[in-house]
Amino acid sequence: EAGVAQSPRYKIIEKRQSVAFWCNPISGHATLYWYQQILGQGPKLLIQFQNNGVVDDSQLPKDRFSAERLKGVDSTLKIQPAKLEDSAVYLCASSYLKLGLAGTYEQYFGPGTRLTVT
Amino acid sequence: AQRVTQPEKLLSVFKGAPVELKCNYSYSGSPELFWYVQYSRQRLQLLLRHISRESIKGFTADLNKGETSFHLKKPFAQEEDSAMYYCAPNKETSGSRLTFGEGTQLTVNP
User: Fold this and answer.
1) Distance (Å, rounded) from C-alpha A25 to C-alpha A39?
2) pLDDT digits over A93-118, tens only?
3) Of B43, B49, B103, the CB nearest to A109
4) Exposed/middle/buried for residue A101 (C-beta within 10 Å: 0-12, 13-18, 19+)
5) Within an 8 Å CB–CB cutoff, is residue A36 touching chain B?
């Protein structure tokens, strides 16, 4: 089974520029997550999709961050304009969704995109 | 507020020694709890979850609701256990929203 794919792997931009990250989840996974991991911290959830709908975006800085998952498969995360504090690794993860049952499915993570804002 | 705390950022032990990575949480209700691990140059991956009550790679974790802890233990550490370990409770009402701790970097010395 192919894993979660992300691109690019590395990106360096200047502050106030824009950047976009792409994620392709594991086939059949209805739920997709974007996390931000700042150096020395654990991953922080930015947004969670179920198919192409947003389930949770409470921690997404909506003034500069946006994300979409138009066809319920691939997703893009955009930052516009970037700030120095956005320097981090951006992780994409996916999992199965099983309606009506309790319990949480394992999240499968991509390799991440390391963003440096100068 | 819901929080998860991993008090040790760094933990160093010798091969064959017991190891315990601590995790404390403050969540209402009964969250599910997970340990995720990231080995050097590899992706973040699930190590174990409390509801499965299984031992993975010799690691176990017991949920102590009284102390609100979910410590990860292994009786005899191996060099290949060196990695970053994250404790991650799940909000019971959300279905699948994990909150990661800040992580503990475990180094097992030969």
Assistant:
1) 24
2) 999 865 555 556 789 999 999 999 99
3) B43
4) exposed
5) no
